[in-house]
Design brief:
By secondary structure, this protein is of the alpha/beta class. The protein is built from 13 helices and 15 strands. The protein has two domains: 134 residues, Aspartate Aminotransferase, domain 1, CATH 3.90.1150; 273 residues, 3-Layer(aba) Sandwich (Aspartate Aminotransferase, domain 2).
Length: 446
């Protein structure tokens, strides 16, 4: 199908995610013909740097021969089989590998299809755990008021209420929200680097009053993604874990975006040395090659469901494509590449260059704040640096950045007033130099 026909048929038959389709009348979607490494190529031979890792999932670059080879090899023997009453080698090997590389208390892997379902599984497991163990009042969840955990109703219920999900608020189940540790816009009016993590006090207050009805705390460790690429202190994460132990509630860590090297370690929780009760994984688990979600949990949680059938403690949850063998093969290959290609060492180099870039643009008039962790860097644009006044939704600063980025061969998809880079671990030094130079040009134009 040639380019013009493809765009025409797309506009006729396709409804794209997170897109006001009316905008496509003037700015139709760009047809991508192929991709290699950190670059996407359109039908005219133009390339665009995939600076956001195709929505944060591509880890080792597009078209990696090892992952493609693993997928092709698996196709020759088994493409899919139901995962109730049956099993297969790729799922068993991947489960063993995940238990090996995640925190030591996590001993069981439950497969699903994506990040939202991985979170849903953790919510339901935690909820039923307390039922199975006799603490039936523990039915609520505690999360941050700017968090984002997915698009399913349960995941939205534990997310912050904002532009993404406000329409659906009447569908949400009730829970509790603590203020986000947003250092640039501190909820307790402290200055970054001159505080004692006072923002944690509200969460403890909620737990002190409501722990007997709270099943779990749900948290994105160290980096709130869709909430604005908000990077918060390790001390806050460790403090939340300590509170979960003190008040006897589960800690669910949503590592969908932060897992697999994004923060400079394999998993973000390693920075704090903590042991969650649940870890939710997706996105980078297959390096973005195939859909997959996994929820890991502890032996204690698993044993609360292990009983005679008539006790009705079975976890009744599953998906058609649970533990798809091809996706498992892609995940195993991706994880193997971390050792073969020294991916975490690359993350450290990317972080050094990213910090230098952010420092170089921090003095620009519209740059209110810059923040960085691992291979993720964010720039918050403001109308007034003194008052931190944001651009209004009507000004559509994000759309202007997107347009200008494309003109400079950059795929930038801002979160409102937040420009961010979510770089794949395969990006080279020369590619970063080029990306940062082009990024500076976009910012200076703005």
């Amino acid at each position: 199908m040639e380019k013009t026909e493809l765009i025409k048929k797309d506009m006729e038959f396709v409804w794209h995610p997170y897109t006001q389709m009316k905008d496509c009348e003037n700015m139709p979607p760009i047809p991508v013909k192929e991709a290699k490494g950190v670059k996407l190529y359109d039908y005219d031979g133009n390339y665009y740097y995939d600076t956001i890792s195709s929505w944060w999932c591509n880890v080792h670059g597009h078209g990696h021969p090892a992952i493609i080879g693993a997928i092709k090899e698996q196709l020759d023997s088994l493409e899919h089989v139901l995962f109730a009453g049956f099993t297969h080698a790729p799922a068993v090997k991947l489960s063993e590998k995940l238990v090996e590389i995640t925190p030591s208390d996590l001993t069981k892997a439950f497969f699903s299809d994506n990040g939202s379902t991985a979170v849903e599984v953790a919510l339901k497991m935690s909820f039923q755990y307390w039922k199975n163990t006799g603490k039936k009042r523990k039915e609520r969840f505690l999360s941050l008021d700017m968090s984002y955990h997915g698009d399913t109703v349960g995941a939205m219920s534990v997310s912050g209420v904002d532009l993404f999900n406000k329409t659906f608020e009447p569908l949400f189940f009730k829970g509790y929200k603590a203020p986000t540790p947003y250092c640039y816009r501190c909820p307790v009016s402290k200055e970054r680097g001159d505080c004692s993590i006072e923002c944690l006090e509200k969460m403890e207050e909620i737990l002190r009053d409501k722990a007997e009805e709270i099943a779990a705390i749900v948290l994105e460790p160290l980096l709130l993604g869709a909430g604005g690429m908000i990077v918060y202190p390790v001390e806050y994460l460790k403090g939340v874990w300590e509170l979960s132990r003190r008040y006897d509630v589960h800690l669910i860590l949503d590592e969908v975006a932060t897992g697999f090297g994004r923060t400079g370690k394999m998993f973000a929780c390693e920075h704090a040395g903590i042991q969650p009760d649940f870890m939710c994984l997706s996105k980078g688990i297959t390096s973005g090659y195939l859909p997959m979600g996994v929820t890991l949990t502890t032996e204690a949680v698993y044993k609360a469901f292990y009983a005679e059938h008539e006790e009705l403690k079975t976890f009744y949850h599953g998906h058609t494509y649970t533990a798809n063998p091809i996706a498992c093969a892609a995940a195993l290959s991706s994880i193997d590449l971390f050792e073969k290609e020294n991916s975490l060492e690359r993350a450290a180099e990317i972080n050094d260059m990213l910090k230098s870039f952010l420092e170089s643009v921090s003095a620009l008039p519209a740059v209110g704040d810059t923040r960085c962790i691992g291979v993720v860097g964010a720039i918050e644009l403001v109308k007034d640096k003194g008052t931190k006044e944001p651009f209004s939704i009507k000004e559509r600063i994000g759309l202007e950045i997107y347009r200008r980025g494309l003109s400079k061969k950059l795929l930038l998809r801002p979160l409102g007033n937040i420009i961010y880079l979510f770089l794949p671990l395969c990006v080279t030094r020369s590619e970063m130099e080029d990306i940062f130079q082009r990024g500076q040009e976009v910012l200076r134009e703005i």
